[in-house]
Amino acid sequence: MRIALLYNLAENAPQPDPNAPHDALYELDHPGNVAAYAEALRAGGHEVFPMEGDTGLVSRLKDLNVDLCYNTCEGFRGDAREAQVPALLEMLGVPYTGSKVMTLALTLDKAMTKRILAYYGLPTPAFQEFFSADDPIEARLAGRYPLFAKPNSEGTGKGISEKSIVRNESELRAQVAYLLNSYHESVLVEQYIEGNDVTVGLVGNWPDLHIFPISMLANELYEDTGVPVYGSALKVDQADAYKYHCPAPLPAELADELRRLTVETMRVTETLDFARVDFRLDRHDNNRPYILEINSLPGITPISDLTLMAQANGWTHADLVYSVLEAAMRRMGLQLDLPARIMRQEYSWVPARSNRR
Question: pTM here?
């Protein structure tokens, strides 16, 4: 096939405000990663055309007459920026990998995602979306300190630091004010769940899914770096210090529940082809899992969490990149010329409509 590889490079982004936070461009990609994606796709025998997913995309696609787009675009601006390139592709009638417009707009908005999770009875920490630092604190959070504050529509740990954990109303309002002023979007404040960070990644679409070994951040990561939360400082600034356990040392019953919740989250948000769901395990409640968010456009760089989980499963980075294409082709009913990497797995459960509250 003729495949357009779509990306957004940090070097091509509109220049941020001089007063923007240091992690303003951390979600955007880099040329070395794009080269790795292209190599994996070409290994499948496809002709690959890398290009920036910007305002010139329409004319470039019309000139090339591609069969499919491999989408990794995070978007440069806007509250639904991850959905912008897919919306454009829908208008052009060009098929693409990954989730659709509504899903990408929904899951970038953490508060909206949590409303969907709560509607279906899936466990997520109690929360409130703040549009002003003076917003009244709703009953569901009143007096439930510590709380956790972060930008509502960011990834790569942007805006998350040790100050995200707030222990009283004064700290809460100060951090909300800072985030509103720095990231120019609403702020998500949720109940702080004390316990381990775990993440579950997968490729495929039910019932043809491949769920990777579960990954858990190592406690010594925080001890060695002195950074108490998994934000942009650990994800990017000190990425070389990253420590994790994969497979995570979890009881089989808990691991199976995490996998079930991951597939349910993917289903209710209508996420397609690949995903990563982040959890916190409540150490004060027998490690009960709480869903923090779903990444419907997860990073697949050579050092992304999803890549590390795939490597723990014996996959290469190229295997992971190509498996996303494979999942999309299967979903669209397109012919595959290579042996399938995504195999149907057996579980003790199947996705079922969750009970609404």
Answer: 0.92
